[in-house]
Fold this protein.
Amino acid sequence: MIRPIHAIQIFLIVAVITLVGNWVGMQQINPVDAALGMLILVAMVMAGWWLARVLPVPFPPIVFVSLLGILLTMPWTPGSEWIVSHTTQVNFLATTTPVLAFAGISIGKDLDKFAELGWRIIVVALVVFTGTFLGSAVIAQAMLRLTGQI
Amino acid sequence: MAENEVVEREFEHNWKLYGIVLILTIIGELIGVRTFQVGPGTALLLPMLYALVIGMFLGPKFVKVVSEKDMSDASPLIVLSVLILVAKLGTTIGPNVPQLIGAGPALLMQEFGNLGTLILAMPVAVLLGFKREAIGATFSNAREGALAIIGDVYGLDSPEGRGVLGVYICGTIFGAIYNGIMSGFIASLNIFHPMAIGMASGVGSASMMSAAGGAAAAAIPEAADTILTFAAASNLVTSATGLYMMIFISIPLANLYLRILTGGRE
């Protein structure tokens, strides 16, 4: 098990990497402002990760971190404007880059298996996108009919 | 699972790995977002895609920068680092909660339409010979939240992880183009009401939503405003509810569906 102290260190290290990426990619954003926004995000992550460990429900940390992010930025939460004004300094795309770097290094060991997916995964992806769109359109149409809106 | 192997030994920071990830991040951001025209649409290359692809080739078989140990050390770090991304996603949803509450039953119910992904795509994946990969590839439309969940439940270096990463990469590169073409085509058939087309366009990714909503609006110009409004609202609902839907409904259902389709073999 990764101990809490190590997890906190990892969150901070990834936060620094993300901030560097955020700064390189979005140079118009003041790194100091973004650092405060990032600290807020890391605090949410730590709290959510801790909740997932101590609460007697088998939900992964993602659930709690996401809930905290939503609850703390809702308009009727005191101080939410302050939080949002700082977290918007961290670009969403910048948070994806280090994660995908870790992912790339990690799947490097199964590169042959990954290559095996080949053209078939492209076909599946196209059906996935079509299914998402058609599924929603069908249910939306049925619900609109049912509620008499169309 | 991969995480369990790490559980056995005492955790030690791998500073070389952090350094490499920092360098990959900087390289990715320096190259920046690139777009290019493909037929009627635009293809998109993002910093994280360069970081992912370069990272994949750093191993002993290619560039020899990272060792087997570095590669297995990276696996549990995906699950932890993705939490920052998840927190950021949450903070983009919170301010819009009032609009979500006012969204109405049709908008909320059509979220279950995302199960159409699974229903339609899983049989195709199984026919093409995918096994556990099919779970990751077809349980959702594979955006960032889906990566986070599959990383947490199975690990991204598992068959399920390869499936979700494969569709994620496809979606990142040509998801917007494809959604644009498909949505414009389906809208022009006049089977669905523009409100339904708008809601369907909100698939939980800003770039895909813009492409799908934009193309449908161009196909039915007299209903353009309706389509774009409902596309944005639905995209918001999907971003907010998608994570919970995937964890509690889509993944269990995907496992059940795969068992049925393969006659219990997977």
